[in-house]
Amino acid sequence: MNIETTEQLAACKSVQKWFDGVHHQSSASTTTDAERLNTLLSFCKMVDKEPDVIIEECFRAKKEGDEWKHIKFKVRRKYSDQIDQAQGDSQTQLPTYLKTPPNWH
Predict the structure, then answer these.
(1) Contact in structure between 40 and 9 (CB atoms under 8 Å)
(2) Which residues are CB-contacts of 25 (< 8 A; sequence separation ≥ 6)?
(3) In sequence order, which residues have a C-beta less than 8 Å from that of residue 84 and are 6 or more positions away?
(4) For 14, which of 49, 51, 72, 100 could close a Cys bridge (C-beta 3.0–4.6 Å)?
(5) 104 close to 69: Cβ distance less than 8 angstroms
(6) In angstroms, how far apart are the furthest CA atoms of the chain?
(7) Is the model's pLDDT at 1 over the cut of 80?
(8) From CA 9, how far away is CA 15, in angstroms rounded?
(9) Could you tell me the pLDDT band of residue 89, with boundaries at 50, 70 and 90?
(10) If DSSP codes are grouped into helix, strand and coil, which group holds residue 60?
(11) Which residues pair with 71 in a beta bridge?
(12) Run of H or E residues at 58
């Protein structure tokens, strides 16, 4: 993994999309973006993968005629289990976008 700082993490396409969704859906949340980035950075270091790679791994390649991306459930389950493991080791709530990734076109 080449990301070492929260600034680098914030530049990732998947993180920007995640923040767009979080800000739209959870405007009343007391968790700051800085806290979210610190938590996500810890998780990415734990699994040794960048967020864009994690998201890419969770989806199958589109086939001709596909309108939506399709989720790789085994991969998603693996990351979901790792999120659960990290939450057990931490008091901080980890992002759940890996457990329920959005249908990005």
Answers:
(1) yes
(2) none
(3) none
(4) 51
(5) yes
(6) 44
(7) yes
(8) 7
(9) low
(10) strand
(11) 59
(12) helix 51-58
Extract the tokens encoding 32: 């700051």
**88: Cβ contacts below 8 Å, ≥ 6 apart:** none
- The Cα 86–Cα 72 span in angstroms is 21
CA dist 71 and 101 (Å) reads: 8
Q: Which residue has the tokens 């767009």?
A: 20
**DSSP state, 98?**
T
pLDDT digits (tens, 9 = 90+) for 28-84: 677 788 988 998 898 899 899 999 998 888 887 777 777 667 788 888 888 888 888
Which structure tokens are listed for 64?
């001709």
Report pLDDT for 36. Answer: 87
Global pTM?
Answer: 0.69
